[in-house]
Write a structure and sequence with these properties.
Elements (H helix, E strand, L loop, with lengths): L7 E6 L4 H11 L3 E3 L10 E6 L2 E7 L11 E4 L3 H10 L4 E3 L8 E5 L5 E5 L11
Parallel strand pairs: 1-4, 5-8
Antiparallel strand pairs: 2-3, 3-4, 6-7, 7-8
């Protein structure tokens, strides 16, 4: 068996939120939008390329979620993204530091929690 990997992450967005979705994930984060398979295009989904993984945003009525669920995007310039998110009016939340992995959290316009990080060192080197 080959090593498993994540193929895609699927998260909700409110129906009719195409413009806000494209503004956040496309314009602000710089992700490339890709067409969903024609067999499911009628389901009101937007797809993005996220490295060699896909991010799928499906239309669903919002439900409050206070859990710690999130996904993480590794980026090259964490502070530049922090500045862009702040300038766009998004709240950036600092969290418990992990050695070798500076990071913060931010919610998309629909309340989906996203962690952003840059891997600069192996955190295992700092284990006691």
């Amino acid at each position: 068996m080959t090593r498993p990997r994540v193929q895609h992450v699927s998260i909700p967005r409110p129906p009719g939120s195409d413009e806000a979705t494209r503004a956040f994930y496309g314009a602000l984060l710089g992700l490339e939008e890709i067409p969903p398979p024609s067999a499911i295009a009628h389901l009101d989904v937007l797809w993005y390329r996220l490295g060699d993984v896909e991010l799928h945003l499906f239309a669903e009525e919002p439900h409050p979620d206070h859990s710690g669920r999130h996904f993480c995007i590794e980026i090259d310039d964490l502070e530049a993204l922090r500045a862009r998110l702040n300038a766009a009016g998004y709240t950036v939340e600092d969290t418990i530091a992990i050695p070798g992995r500076p990071r913060f959290f931010c919610c998309d316009p629909f309340g989906n929690r996203i962690e952003f990080t840059t891997i600069v060192d192996d955190y295992l080197k700092y284990q006691e």
